[in-house]
Amino acid sequence: MDIPASLRYARTHEWTSELEADVVTVGITDFAQDQLGDVVFVELPEEGARVAAGDALAVVESVKTASDIYAPVAGTVKAVNTELEAAPEKINEEPYGGGWLFRIEPDDPADRDTLLDADAYRVVCEEES
């Protein structure tokens, strides 16, 4: 199970990158994509959408189930990964790279610091395994 130390994690299995150009990149973790199985469809949020932390704003469907994806921080959706519409399997292949879902400009960049670090997220994964 890959849990990069540079990222922050939500208990709902989303990751966020470090703040770059006033935005954080968000995706689902390696653990989450493994639990879902082969991803076959992604419903992404609209650019410009305002979200509160914890809002469901995307859906990832796999051969097993559909899963809501939640905003790890409050803010505005600045970009979505439209490549996933034609190639949703990128989520399985590169959960921390080309499989990112959307980018949010946080209302308060410090909110990212309230998310779990890699060690704390690893404990969450072990409890759910």
How do the SSEs run, as a string of H and E? EEEHEEEEEHHEH
Strand percentage: 25-35%
- Largest beta sheet: what is the strand line-up? 1-2-3-9-8-5
**What is the tally of helical segments?**
4
Q: Output the CATH homologous superfamily.
A: RNA polymerase II/Efflux pump adaptor protein, barrel-sandwich hybrid domain
Task: Give the CATH architecture.
Answer: Beta Barrel
Task: Report the uncertain regions.
Answer: none
Give me the count of strands. Answer: 9
Structural class: alpha+beta
* Spatial gap, N to C terminus: 11 Å
- Radius of gyration over C-alpha positions, nearest whole angstrom: 13 Å
> How many domain units?
1
* Average of the residue pLDDT scores: 95
State the CATH topology.
OB fold (Dihydrolipoamide Acetyltransferase, E2P)
What is the global morphology? globular
Helix content: 10-25%
* Main sheet attributes: strand count, strand direction, barrel closure: 6 strands, antiparallel
CATH class value: Mainly Beta
